[in-house]
Amino acid sequence: MNNDQKAKVIKQFSKNADSYVTSHSHARGNDLQHIEKWLHPDPDWKVLDIATGGGHTAKTLAPLVNQVFASDLTKTMLQNTASHLRNYENIFFILADAENLPFLDETFDAVTCRIAAHHFPNPEVFLKETSRVLKPEGKFLLIDNVVPEEDTLADFMNRFEKMRDESHVSCLSPSEWNRLTSKYHFEELKRDVHKKTYPFQTWVQRTTDSKNDWKRVENYILDGSNEALSYFSVRNEDNRIVSLEVDEMMSIYEKG
């Protein structure tokens, strides 16, 4: 099952490699502006960016630290990102599984993972590996979409995300992340949960293969309960979705 899921991730991100470099929500998200302020990086740091995707976090950190290792499961994605960031001489691109990192224990001063963990089949293994490669008192910055704490709304969101993108596994809730990070000796220093708006057409077409696929996603969302339509701020005109909102969590931890 895990290998099948990872194959879906590789397939999805291989065919959409360049769109994740240019995607507005990935390339110009407000969270990128807060990374330096939250991490307080030292110029001597060695940083690992897990599931780097379009490389936006690595690009943000490169001028602030000594070395950035940008890792990703998808070779096509990583090759494309390396081409876009070829002028950043202190970014090193590593083909790697977030759940089986090819690094020695206590290698990094900081680890980051942005808008990717919902693709991981085993988030506990990802956190265990993150803790392993991080130095004592090292910083871990996690940014990802999260589901509401209410089960019905959480199920609704994960279902439409899975319909839109077959490589999606599951968004967790903030309380689930808190439980798992505590298990692997991370102390949360700061957390922010905020709304993120997706223009529907761009969002759905980036990962679906046909108009029938994205119409299926649209119809599923429109058939949601009033509570769901309200929570996700679904805006529609003439029964066509214009935009919706999901929750994004930005949390920083220290390894105990």
Distance between the termini: 33 Å
- Could you tell me the mean pLDDT? 92
List the total number of helices.
Answer: 12
Secondary structure category? alpha/beta
What is the name of the CATH superfamily? Answer: Vaccinia Virus protein VP39
Number of strands: 8
Number of domains: 1
User: H/E series, N to C?
Assistant: HHHHEHEHEEHEHHEHHHEE
Shape: globular
State the share of residues found in helices, binned by percent. Answer: 40-55%
Radius of gyration: 18 Å
CATH topology grouping: Rossmann fold
CATH class: Alpha Beta
Low-confidence stretches: none
Sheet having the most strands: 8 strands, mixed
What fraction of residues sit in β-strands?
A: 25-35%
Q: TL;DR?
A:
The protein is of the alpha/beta class and 256 residues long. It is 41% helix and 27% strand. The chain has one domain (2-155, 166-198, 248-255): Vaccinia Virus protein VP39 (Rossmann fold).
Write structural notes for this entry.
The structure is a single chain. This protein is an alpha/beta fold. It has one domain: 3-Layer(aba) Sandwich (Rossmann fold). It contains 12 helices and 8 strands. It has helices spanning 2-15, 17-22, 24-27, 35-39, 56-61, 75-84, 123-133, 151-164, 174-183, 200-205, 211-222, 226-231; strands at 46-50, 67-72, 91-95, 108-114, 134-146, 186-199, 235-237, 240-255. Strands 1, 2, 3, 4, 5, 6, 7 and 8 form an 8-stranded mixed beta sheet that branches. It is globular. The model has no long low-confidence stretch (mean pLDDT 92).
